[in-house]
Amino acid sequence: IPTSEAHRPQFHFSPKAHWMNDPNGMVYYKGTYHLFFQYYPDGMTWGPMHWGHTTSTDLVHWQEQPIALYPDSLGYIFSGSVVVDVNNTSGLGKNGQTPLVAIFTHHNPKLEKAKTDKHEYQSLAYSLDEGKTWTKYAGNPVLPNPGITDFRDPKVRWYESQKKWVMTLATKDRVTFYSSPNLKEWTKESEFGKEVGAHGGVWECPDLFPLDHKGKKAWVLLVSINPGGPNGGSATQYFVGDFDGKTFKPYSTKTKWVDYGTDNYAGVTFANTGNRTLFMGWMSNWQYAGVVPTSPWRSATTVPRELGLKEVGNELCLISMPVKELNALNGQRVALKNPTAKTPFDLPAQSKTRSFKLDIATSNSSDFSMTLANEQGNELIFGYDKTANAYFIDRSKSGKIDFEKGFGKRHIAPRSSSSTTMTLTILVDVASIEMFADDGLTVMTDIFFPESDLTKLFISSAKGGSSAPVVSYTPLLSTVE
Ligand code: FRU
Question: Is the Cβ atom of 76 under 6 angstroms away from ligand 1?
Answer without folding.
Answer: no
